[in-house]
Every structure is written in C-alpha cells, then in structure tokens.
Specification:
CATH architecture of the largest domain: Sandwich
Strand order of the largest sheet: 10-12-17-16-15-14-13-18-19-20
Shape: rod-shaped
Number of domains: 4
Distance between the termini: 145 Å
Number of helices: 2
CATH class of the largest domain: Mainly Beta
Length: about 325
Amino acid sequence: MYTLRRILSRKPFQLIIVPLIIIFCVVACDLDENKPTPTIVDMPDHGSVGEEIHIVGYYFATSIAGNVVKFNGVEGEVTSATSSDLSVIVPAGATTGKVTITANGLTGISQPFTIYVNGNITDVSPWSGPTGTTVTVTGTNFQTLPENFNVRINYSVLEATGPNSFIAISKSAATILTSISSTEYKFNVPPMPLASGNIEVKAFGEEIYASNGQNSTSDVSRFTVQSFIVTGFTPSSGARGSSVVISGSGFTASLAAYKVYFYDAPFHITEGTVTNATTTAITVTVPVTAITGTMSLQTTDNSPGVSMHRAFIVTP
C-alpha cells in the first residue's frame, strides 16, 4: 500500500494537483480583489440624535448584522437592511462628519453629515410693528450658519446673503437680519406689502412656528405688520376749520391714504379733510360739524397700524 508521501511524490500526481492549487489561489485572490465596495447613492445631509435615516445605494449586506454604519466614528443601530437600502438610527454621541458603511469587509464613505439639535422658540418681541421695527426672536439651539436656516414672516423668507448678512424676500420687500446667535435672531420688519402672519424659524428643513411666545402651528396669535405708528398730535384742541398735525412714523405720503374721524358717540361721526401727508406727519382740518370727543386716524384700505384714538376738544 502506498503511503500519502509516495502518492504525492509521483510525477503524474504533481503535474495535476499543483496547477489546480495555483489556479484556485489565483481565482480566490481575484474574487477578493473584485469584491464590490458598499456605495452610497442617496442619504440625508443632516439629522438629529435618535432620528432614523434611510441610506440608498448598492452592495450593502442583506442582513442587519452584516452592515456596520458609523457616524463620524460612532456606530449607529441598523434597523433594516437590503442590498440597496439601509435604515439606521443616529446614535448618541454622534458628531458632524462622514458616515461610513462597512459590509463584506469593505467600507464605503458618504459626504459630510451634519448632526443638529432641534431649535426651540421661547419668545418673540414685539408681536407687532411697522416697517423698520426690530423684532427679537429668542430661544435655544438656533443655527448660526447661513446655509442651515432662515427666518420668515408669513412665509416670506429672510435669506442669507453672506456671513451675518441676510435679506428678506417678500414680494417687493427686503430687510436685513441684523443679529444671529444660537439663542437669538434679530431682524427688521421689511417694507409693505409684507402681510401679517406667523414668525417662523426653519433649520435644516425643520420648521418652528412662534405664536404668542410659544411653539405652535396655530394662526390665532400672529405677528402684525403695521403700516404706521402714531406718536402724538398738536394741538389737542381747536376750532372748527383749524388744522391738527398728527405725528408718527411709517406714514404714506398720500392724501388719499388716510381718513381722520371726529366723534363723540357711534351716531355722531364726522370726517376731517387731510390737507398734507408726509412719512412722519399728517395734517387734517377739523370739520365744521365736529364736536368735542375723540379723533381717530385710520387707513383707507384698513391696513393694520397703531391707529390713534385720542381726546380732542372742539373750541368755539
């Protein structure tokens, strides 16, 4: 009986087995070199801790255990897996950086993925004002990079134009967002015809509405864009036919833009004649039928404003 050594030492056997071994090694090595690397085709560019995100691509492992997904080095929890789709929960401790997927011993790398904390609006002050009014939105975890957020009034976006420089696009209106920090945004109310509405901070596509100082999607309490503010009038008394100058800001320099009424009861209302109008003052003539009571300024189109309702004495 031949021993194994004698069999292996025979020339014919060596001529058959040795080439087969060589071919097997070449094929195995080639297969390993051509093993496909996991490739990421589509995934979000941002997310928060605990959020489940979906990654689309190819050459993923078809089992959950076969995929290791890391967010800037911190491993996330894979909840479902196919060869072209992974669902992963962003782990605690994850920081902004690249996402890696390791499957079949090979690793694919994503573009940078931003980790963020949802912002929270705690207050808005004031809740009304005319063009140019500085509005302060306070809260927590606000974004400070221009590309990551915007602020809106009634869906009119205050868009970034550069570091610490933002412009509001609202029909023909434009204004500057003057201050940006993680806890506070300040901006100036843009010119009319910006409409009243919710103030909204939008970061990474996530929307936070401010209503009555609280996070809300309700339209019950909205920011009111006022067309003007009245600061006073002189004199506080006068004869019929005399002139009264109403002072303020945000006025329209048009005689037809405003109406001034003199009344002492709902059934005794007379309208004065506006004789001059600038952006800071309106002059009106006391009507011949006016009596002592209240003088009121309103816009002809009923646009919002801090309208004046002041006592006026009609003298003989």
